[in-house]
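@channel sequence for tomorrow's demo:
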Amino acid sequence: MSSSIPVSDSLSNVRYEIRGQLAQRAHEMERQGYEIISLNIGNPGLFGFRTPETIRMAMIENLATSEAYCHQKGIFPAREAVVMQQQDRGVMDVTAEDVFIGNGVSELIDLTLRALLNTGDEVLIPSPDYPLWTAAVTLNGGKAVHYPCTPANGFEPDIGQLEKLITPRTRALVVINPNNPTGAVYSRATLEKIVALAEQHGLVLFADEIYDGMTYDDAEFVPLATLAKNTLCGTFSGLSKVYRACGFRVGWVSFSGAHGKASEYLHALDLLASLRLCSNVPGQWGVQTALGGFQSLRDLIEPGGRLYESRRAVIENVERSPYLTLVPPGGSMYAFVGVDRDALPGFDDHAFALQLLEEEHVLVAPGSSFNVDYRNYFRITLLPEAGVIEEVFVRIDSILKKLIK
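structure tokens (generated this afternoon):
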């Protein structure tokens, strides 16, 4: 008799190293009394950011009506608020029936892929990616096919290379914009070419736009749904990042474009939503207030704002370093930092991250965690204040000098 319980084979190619062994080691060190600067995950509440008070009050005032299950797609005021946001952007073919509220975007990624994929179906995912997309495709029997978004191209996709990866088994194309982990904000021209490919080959578009509007300087966020007319486009967003409400677990997906071809798919998604009954009801009451109220994010992303100044600190510290490179993030709350291979030809991102944690008590996410085939990058979040960012790079420089020696 086996001495251990076997693990499902479906997990053989699944990983989520952002909360993996390095994060577990950081927790162990914290229990031992060490103070760890955790830059591995975008969790605003851990860095002193607050959810806007109006959103919290909307939840509190509706707690008495939140004790029963709601409709599997979500409460009507939340879904209608998403419709209004899309219409404000020029996406006029979305109704409340086309909106699903979930326990964060994470749950909806899983449900939308589960409703779509058969064994062996392929989904095009950017590399680097947010690894949940790759994991969810794998767990639902599909094959994740990564299209390269290289530093040389500003981390935007190469459309020619992307097109070569399309096969008869390709079912969907994922776009993460603004991008996690790189902070790239895709140009309108790039997005138009992506949409043209999807429409030509009949691919479903999944637009992960959880950082919508979180852009810096002259970067322009273009909602993908405003361009996609002749294929189905699912747009994902939520309260976690823009509204600093990760713990509320409220996300949504709205469908626009070629509805006529998607009735069976949307019915299947409705069935899956029914099976999990509904998503967190109290948090849903914050959606209408969030989308229709004052957008406090603007105060954070403009010059003088906390996210803007932390981003500036990252850019300036990388520029001063003889070992580091960076494509300045145009959006999101991350920077994807490269290490000069000529200066450190044997650099390994995991070994570096572990040494940085053990010796300098800074936790970062190795770049290879994001499904790339190179090992000389790491991701940090922009959430700490600029002074903390300065201290982090002093500690990073200390480790890099040791590696040089």
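heads up for whoever presents: The chain has two domains: 12-41+302-404, 54-292.
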